[in-house]
Design brief:
Length: 275
Amino acid sequence: MLKRSIFSFLTLFICSLTYAQVAPQSNTTTNNNVRERSPRGNPEDTEVWEPIPNVVVPGEINFNDPPSDAIILFDKDNLDKWVSLRDESPAKWVVTGDYFTVNKATGDIKTKEEFTNYQLHIEFKIPEEIAHNGQSRGNSGVFLAATNGNAGGYELQVLDGYNNDNKTYVNGMVGSIYKESIPLVNPAKKPGEWNVYDVIWTAPSFNADGTVKTKARATVFLNGVLIQNNVEVQGETAYIGKHEYVAHGPAPIKLQSHGDPSIPVSYRNIWLRKL
Ligand code: MG
């Protein structure tokens, strides 16, 4: 009995030594390339690839005129309500009548006005001739509050997602709260057709010492179909690592100029009702 106990102990001891030597090596190997891990981790650590939301074909879309109490953020001809994120100079995205297109050379744009809780309507179009794949296929984004925190706010992803043909991690697909919340279903229109986001945003609130009092909440419809149902947002959108809050007050809405090589996305008919 004693011999067997000693043998079991030795076996466990040797196994744990072997594991201790193997485990750190496995952490440094990604995609067959050995590399040092950043202390913050790697982008892949926070990718979720399943479940893939079901495709839903939306009904006839009603591109509504704004209601009478809406703040018009864009209807046609100019971006007077927007500035460049970089230096707050006039927004230099390309306006073509009743829509405008991301200008990747000039970076993100944000609203001049700041908001807390609101209902937002915004339409977007992935170009018909879109190329590339994954996160490089029509990537932009609506930051529901643009902040000065490390991640710059909370991103509702814009990306080609038609028919689930563009393979990517589902917490980064169109309709996701980026790297947080997978959309319930996928009613995205095909490239070349206009999509509509309708968003209800409840801003986070903070205690005097900067800690979170209440987390943000988002409800999102894409093309009239509910895709985010009052989800609790865990923090600012981080490409790498954990999402965290940094205390802020009223904030602009920001549109993302993503650095991928695909043809830029267009937006139109943007209005907001304060809640
Ligand atoms: Mg994006």
